[in-house]
Known about the structure:
Blueprint: H1 3-6, E1 14-17, H2 23-33, E2 39-43, H3 44-50, H4 52-60, E3 64-71, H5 75-88, E4 90-96, H6 101-113, E5 119-123, H7 131-136, H8 143-156, E6 161-163, H9 166-176, E7 181-184, H10 203-209, E8 213-216, H11 218-221, H12 226-239
Parallel strand pairs: 1-2, 1-8, 2-3, 3-4, 4-5, 5-6, 6-7, 7-8
Bound molecules: cytidine-5'-monophosphate (C5P).
Cytidine-5'-monophosphate (C5P) binds at residues 17, 19, 43, 126-127, 163, 165, 185-186, 195, 197, 215-219.
Amino acid sequence: MNADAAAPIAKDRLIVALDVPSAAQARDLAAQLRGMCRWVKVGLELYLAAGSSIVEELAAQGFSVFLDLKFHDIPNTVAGAVRSAASMGASLLTIHAAGGPAMLSAAAEAAAASPNSPRLLAVTVLTSMDRAQLAAVGIDASAADQVLRLARMATASGMQGLVCSAEEVQMLRQELGADPSLVVPGIRPAGAAAGDQKRIAAPADAIRAGASKLVVGRPITQAADPAKAAQAILDEIANAK
Ligand code: C5P
């Protein structure tokens, strides 16, 4: 097998965040992206509006679904949530690393025992938290140090990857090696509006820094032609060297 054949294909590396308030809007976007995009993300807004049926529907259409509900509860409850999400057909889930090793291990065991074994990503420090916000919840560390501490703990506790910002990806790749999947939001192609994102990166730059997958919402979902916007990002991922 040559290196190109072994390289992950662009379609596996783009996750479109369906951050819309209704099942009808999610269906409309999915219809435009079907065949072109493999991964979609269902977050709190869509999940609370449309429920588990939207996850089942997207999975039945052939999409791989990233269910981004950031679980954080006692180990038994999180294990049950992982089983429920797996039975809906979700392929990728998020868990707060701050829940600790016992909670993460329980989640990992539940995922491994589920029929389609969803992969688990840890969320370390929310990008909305800075040093002052961390101090307010009793953590006397910089955001970067806390991210690394939680990332090491999470991967040692069975998480297959992490959600991280483009700013953190290079450091995490160096510290954690090639194995963990690093999933990066805050992506903006040249010319796209930043919106409320403070730290953004172009698709090719995030891939070059070591990202496994990119999460892209508004630059695709609010484009006049979402399929064309998605294709441009897929091309940029494919050509990132
Ligand atoms: O529209 P946009 O491309 O900014 O969407 C980014 C997506 O990634 C949203 O669903 C957002 O909730 C998610 N996300 C993020 N920053 C994080 C974690 C998740 O933007 N640190």
